[in-house]
Design brief:
The chain has 80 residues and is an all-alpha fold. The chain has one domain. The protein is built from 5 helices and no strands. Helix 2 packs across helix 3 and helix 3 packs across helix 5. The longest helix is centred in the last third of the chain and has 16 residues. The relative contact order is 0.19.
Length: 80
């Protein structure tokens, strides 16, 4: 039986591979609030394009931290 995406995200969070976990979880729609979904998406986007988001006035370090914290809260691994 293939591994579910949510199980993959849990494993990646446990292993500390947050960028990979965020890449998968940013597309989740079921079982995640709109605010949590936005935090995960923004965290991933800020990892990929920090300069662009900084120009928009967004604190990229804070956005990444928020995305990882949300992911950890939802999928285990504790808070960062």
């Amino acid at each position: 039986m293939p591994e579910k995406k949510s199980d993959i995200v849990r494993r990646l969070v446990t292993d500390g591979e947050y960028k990979k976990a965020l890449r998968i979880a940013k597309d989740f729609r079921l079982g995640i609030s709109k605010a949590d979904s936005e935090a995960v998406k923004r965290g991933y986007e800020c990892m990929l394009y920090p300069g662009t988001y900084a120009q928009l006035g967004i604190d990229t370090d804070k956005a990444v931290e928020s995305g990882i914290s949300t992911l950890s809260r939802l999928y285990g691994g504790g808070c960062v």
